[in-house]
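quick one
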Amino acid sequence: MAENCIFCKIIKGEIPSVKVYEDEKMVAFKDVAPAAPVHVLLLPKEHVENIVACPAPLLSHILGKVELIAKETGVAEKGFRLVINTGADGGQTVPHLHIHLIGGKELGWPPC
Ligand code: 5GP
Ligand code: ZN
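structure w/ guanosine-5'-monophosphate:
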């Protein structure tokens, strides 16, 4: 847990969130400012700054739950997008690794 990390505070229950999945290693909750009808963030409970700093087995664990969370949020059939913003140029605003799962409508491309 990192001091002053908003996602660590959510994981500790100090800030409320709408959780859609949780296990011993990770949590998934709804984004507070959704970019689409379905917008969920998947993240490790351990404070890991970004994808580069994340141990491969932990990343693999999180990715292994994508199918389940996509089914539970109703986007598995029509499709969805995963986004991992990394660093300043990548648009990362919260320095605790999180994977955006976005769907529920036809998404535009490119994203920039
Ligand atoms: P980033 O820009 O770092 O890739 O994504 C950060 C995401 O976290 C943004 O989509 C933002 O809306 C979301 N977010 C920021 N603060 C909170 C919060 O307190 N609760 C929730 N549920 N989402 C948050
Ligand atoms: Zn954190």
